[in-house]
Amino acid sequence: MNNFDDVLVELDALSSCAEPSPLRGWPIPKVLVHCAQSIDASIDGYPKMKPALLRKTIGRLVVRRFLAKGSFSHDIESPIPGAPDISENDLSEGIAALRASIQRFRDHRGPLAPHFVFDALDKDAYERIHAMHIADHLGAIRYR
After folding, report:
1. What are the residue ranges spanned by the domains of the chain?
2. At 47, phi and psi to the nearest 5?
3. Does the N terminus or the C terminus of the chain have fewer Cβ atoms within 10 A?
4. What is the pLDDT of residues 63-107, one digit of tens each?
5. 3-state secondary structure of 3
6. What is the reported pTM?
7. Greater confidence, 44 or 144?
8. What's 107's DSSP letter?
């Protein structure tokens, strides 16, 4: 997935699947809310940041590599540092939360907060990173 249009297509497929199931990792609604938290944090600010030196050196190198490659892999059970715990919800609520966060990001016209690892990103790069993040999580779900 390269952008939010691709993500929305996948969310349609997920919502129309009779019995989606996680192959590994968290329950599906938690995954979706986690991805929504990440998008919201790019607007509101991440609760905890990695040290500035790391973000401005290694973080920037790593994000450029991910953007060039068009994908990345990460620990899909690692919460956003300092983010609130995700309460139980159902699949439709998780999908709605992620859709709402995507729309909020699209509508946002102000500055974006630095990423907690990758530092400052422009809107296009942030969208691509969020789409890759979501793709990594959806890759651990059977819904097709």
Report:
1. 4-17+30-80+92-142
2. -60, -35
3. C
4. 999 999 999 999 999 999 999 999 888 999 999 999 999 999 999
5. coil
6. 0.96
7. 44
8. H
